[in-house]
Amino acid sequence: MMAVLQEETETCTSDMTLQYLIFLLSKVALNTLVLSFWLSSIPKTLLGVYSISIYLVDLLLICSISWVWWFPQNHHTHEVMCLSLSHSSNIYSLLPLPVLLAGALDCVIQQHVGFSQKSLGRTAVHCAVVMLMWMLACFYSYCYTDTELLTIQYSEGVSALVCSVQGSLVVSHFSLNLFIIVSFILLLHCRKLPGWVCMANKLTKQRTGTLSISDLAFSRKLEKLESGAVEEAHMNKEQDRPSLIISLVLCFALNWTPYLLMSVVCDLLGFAVPAYASVNLLWTACANSLLVGLAFWYRSNKHGPFCPLPDDICPWGFFWYLSRENGQYTASTKLYDGQG
Q1: What is the Cα Rg of the chain in Å?
Q2: pLDDT tops 70 at residue 20
Q3: N or C: which end of the chain has fewer CB within 10 A?
Q4: Are the CB atoms for 80 and 68 separated by under 8 Å?
Q5: Judging by beta carbons within 10 Å of its beta carbon (0-12, 13-18, 19+), is residue 7 exposed, middle or buried?
Q6: Secondary-structure percent of the chain, ordered helix, strand, coil, rounded to 5
Q7: Average pLDDT taken over every residue of the chain
Q8: What is the pLDDT of residues 262-308, one digit of tens each?
Q9: Residue 219 CA: distances (Å) to CA of 214, 305, 321, 330
Q10: Is 52 a residue whose pLDDT tops 90?
Q11: Environment class of 181 (CB within 10 Å of its CB; exposed 0-12, middle 13-18, buried 19+)
Q12: Residues 133, 136, 140, 141, Cα dihedral to 10°
């Protein structure tokens, strides 16, 4: 795809630098909003550290484009714009796949260490791995990115100065495939979904704070919920409850369907977005929730719903109680003490 840097007609010339600057400022504002929901657990995973690095690189990109806008008298402004946009889009399009694989490997390793264990060494390893991936992506971009300015003719008397930019196929395929899988699983149980969502809402409303060993009030409320609210929702039969994996899929879908649907619709309608322009932190937060959800499903059989997890978006612990395997547990549930 092409990024238009300047449009010229017989009567006037329109420079697009300010539009790019405003767009990137809006992107950083949205990324800041995502960080505000994810801030407490973001340093605990490799995907979280990568998200922080993206945020910082976005600020550097804004500084670069701001310099171009503040000093338009420089004869190389369009070359700097093309260099910034082409390299940033190429680097951003290269990183998602290795980051996703490294994040999955990190989750596997932390199954044995425990997510709750704070370690400066582990954070340092995350930072080193992220820096290595950035360096390799920058080196590849330096060798293979085409930063040549092109002039194309729209129509008679109208021309544009453009440069080549890249979209992120990995993010698009990730969103599309995940949306299809989640939709297919939930459609198989579409008749029971309203009751499950109602029950999930009642479970979530009982939350008074973060799950912890000392949260006895929450456990008592769960006991009351099991005896009263379940009957009100007509879900007192075990066979009416979802399995644990379906319950966790429902938890993920309730939190991430809007983002996945937006991504899929944009792709289907042909709204191509360069990699530097997408809200990258939404994708990393979604991927983090997916990996953490899989880790929770694996660990919960042994440790129950009180596994400390680096995800501030999906309340996995509450949906553990929604499943038919664990719906009978109340205040007597054996709590996990946070040790891997």
Answers
A1: 24
A2: yes
A3: N
A4: yes
A5: middle
A6: 65, 5, 30
A7: 80
A8: 999 988 888 878 888 888 899 999 999 999 888 888 877 776 666 66
A9: 9, 12, 11, 6
A10: yes
A11: exposed
A12: 60
Q: What is the DSSP letter of 162?
A: E
Query: What is the C-alpha to C-alpha distance for residues 24 and 26, in angstroms, rounded to an integer?
Result: 5
User: If we measure between CA atoms, which residue out of 328, 321, 300, 325 comes closest to residue 218?
Assistant: 321
Burial annotation 251-286 (CB, 10 A radius, 16+ → b, else e) = bbbbbbeebbeebbeebeeeeebbbbbbbbbbbbbb
pLDDT top residue among 250 and 302: 250
Q: 334 by DSSP, 3-state: which?
A: coil
194 class by beta-carbon count within 10 Å (0-12 exposed, 13-18 middle, 19+ buried): exposed
Predicted TM-score (pTM) of this structure: 0.82
Reported as a single tens digit per residue, the pLDDT across 64-98 is 899 888 877 766 788 888 899 999 999 999 999 99
* 56 Ramachandran zone, left/alpha/beta (phi>0; psi -120 to 50): alpha
Which structure tokens are listed for 85?
A: 């946009």
pLDDT band for position 116 (cuts 50, 70, 90): low
CA-to-CA distance for 10 and 5, rounded, in angstroms? 17
Residue 256, CB-side half-sphere exposure with 13 Å CA sphere: 32
Two tokens, residue 71: 């000093």
Residue whose pair of structure tokens reads 């009416």 in the numeric block? 240
Judged against a pLDDT cut of 80, whether residue 325 lies above it is answered with: no
- 13 forms beta bridges with 8
- DSSP-based three-state secondary structure for 8: strand
CA 56, distance to chain mean position in Å, is 17
